[in-house]
Hints:
Layout: H1 10-28, E1 41-47, E2 53-59, E3 65-70, E4 75-81, H2 87-94, E5 103-112, E6 115-122, E7 126-133, E8 141-149, H3 155-159, E9 168-169, H4 171-181, E10 220-221, E11 223-229, H5 246-262, E12 267-271, H6 281-290, E13 295-302, E14 313-317, H7 325-335, H8 337-341, H9 350-356, H10 362-379, E15 391-393, E16 405-412, H11 416-423, H12 425-445, H13 448-456
Parallel strand pairs: 9-10, 11-12, 11-13, 13-16, 14-15
Antiparallel strand pairs: 1-2, 2-8, 3-4, 4-6, 5-6, 7-8, 14-16
Helix pairs in contact: 5-12, 6-9, 10-12
Amino acid sequence: xxxxxxxxxxxxxxxxxxxxxxxxxxxxxxxxxxxxxxxxxxxxxxxxxxxxxxxxxxxxxxxxxxxxxxxxxxxxxxxxxxxxxxxxxxxxxxxxxxxxxxxxxxxxxxxxxxxxxxxxxxxxxxxxxxxxxxxxxxxxxxxxxxxxxxxxxxxxxxxxxxxxxxxxxxxxxxxxxxxxxxxxxxxxxxxxxxxxxxxxxxxxxxxxxxxxxxxxxxxxxxxxxxxxxxxxxxxxxxxxxxxxxxxxxxxxxxxxxxxxxxxxxxxxxxxxxxxxxxxxxxxxxxxxxxxxxxxxxxxxxxxxxxxxxxxxxxxxxxxxxxxxxxxxxxxxxxxxxxxxxxxxxxxxxxxxxxxxxxxxxxxxxxxxxxxxxxxxxxxxxxxxxxxxxxxxxxxxxxxxxxxxxxxxxxxxxxxxxxxxxxxxxxxxxxxxxxxxxxxxxxxxxxxxxxxxxxxxx
Length: 457
């Protein structure tokens, strides 16, 4: 007798159907859309300055933003996905300052579910950059809006407001006259990267290299000193126990030093930043080169994990690695300023690649060591030295190949006693005067005309 064909019992069939139903449910569940939770705004900040205005939204998650500009009148529209209206956004509206060079007012509204629209009413046409930053240091995710002018301000125009005397040769004045006679597209001035689809703005020409003056009837040459107050804007630098911020105190010292330099008949100073805003490291170098600086001085205030660390230091560039573990650590810390301050890594600025290369020269480093030694000799008269000789490391901000460049750590802001000194206006003046004397000592021993003649020969 042949076996009967197998049939599932009713109870077995029901069990199989339930298993298949559950499996199908498990397959479907992950693709059911879930309502996204709106991001939380942790802080809002604005950094208005003549060069550009930055608006920052700090959030607990990364968001996507789209933007476009409108004319007649000029407006910038930014749509941010994953946001709903909140008191923090209203706080941003109140932070727009009347003296902001670019923003007239700001309006915020819920454009559609989960999308907030920000409309900036502008005082002039802008070339905006909108980008996001990953968490770094004390910051969470940041959405950054940089509002640059359509035509970038040229450092040459800003610096040539000091008239040189009849007995002083001023090569930059001749360059400016040539620019005014031949207003063609600028090629090497620092400017914001172009947005997608944006056309380059008309700008100024690359200034010619000044030739070595003849010895007959030689005039004193106007010297240009580039002063670089470290950090700024989103990047506060080191912060002392009482809350003194490095970016603030070094700007005060740089302004005092600028006044001393400008009071000299054959010198003038140029600040890479003259207010509280962020300047990328490579742009600081570009600015110094654009104004044909004879000397570059980056001013900082040191910090260490132990409050007992103290003293002033001077650093020059190194081609062969750091002169000490501390110098290497210091260079790494200062080179991280771009990450903290917030650089748009998605932009394709052709100048960035150039500056990131090791453009240093032996002559530049040798001159920098001479400047640094002169500074240490003067600074030790008003403060203890952390190291008695000039240290060297790979500081990105010192990589101008044709400008003697040093970085001065004025004191340890992490040391309570030195923080009190840095807060003191009288000590700031003493530091500026010490650096002024160091500048004069260096140029007395190394006249700029001799350096130009050596380069030409």
